Amino acid sequence: MARALQLSVTETEHLLDLARTPRTPAVSAATGPETVSPNARTLLSLVAERPAVVLGRRNDVLAWNKLGHALIAPHLRADAPDHPDTRPSLPRLLLLDPQARAVYRDWDQEAADYVAHLRLISGKYPDDETLTRMIGELCVRDDAFAALWASGRVGECVAGTKRMIHPRTGEITVDFQLWAQADRPDQRVEIYELRDDPDGTLTRALLDTPAAHVGRQ
């Protein structure tokens, strides 16, 4: 069927996930809050000079380094990922948080990629009630998400480029790559690198307080 429909590798993977019976899910649905993989925590500490975050299976931020926090959501508390009740949800930030949403210059593409990935994950975790509730919430609260979800697109993005308008640096372009963890394949470390920053000026600016840039705007 996959060959007849000329599906991509990712789309074929999703088809196989959907074809499995509820008794044989691709991945067992974990219970309780996610905890950070030891390997992911170690990798995070090794890339302190670059923005990096640890993402769970629902794209919740389970941990971030200082630069990762400064790049992704400087308006949130630095310790937000430490508590399951306050962990930042990247899909919710992108769709429902005006400050986070305004950062992405190519927001439409960013949103489409996130929704496509959520559909892939929903096939792997059909019994994940928290994931199902989040998708339902986003469908109700955001028309753009509802339209993208209805499109049925499936995708996986392990590397790419984001164009941003950051409140502390202005316009920047960052490359990113995701690293799956062998001990917990449902967790990924996302590492960013700022382009056109040979002397680290933009990277250091990420750690400045917003007040330091008021006079430059």
How are the elements arranged and paired?
Layout: H1 2-5, H2 9-19, H3 38-46, E1 52-55, E2 61-64, H4 66-72, H5 90-96, H6 98-101, H7 107-124, H8 129-141, H9 143-151, E3 159-166, E4 170-180, E5 188-194, H10 201-206
Antiparallel strand pairs: 1-2, 1-5, 3-4, 4-5
Protein described:
- By secondary structure, the protein is α+β, with helices and mostly antiparallel strands.
- The chain has one domain (36-216): Beta-Lactamase.
- It has ten helices and five strands.
- The chain has a five-stranded antiparallel β-sheet.
Question: Main traits of this protein?
Answer:
217 residues; alpha+beta; Beta-Lactamase; 5-stranded antiparallel β-sheet; 10 helices; 41% helix; 16% strand; globular; disordered C terminus
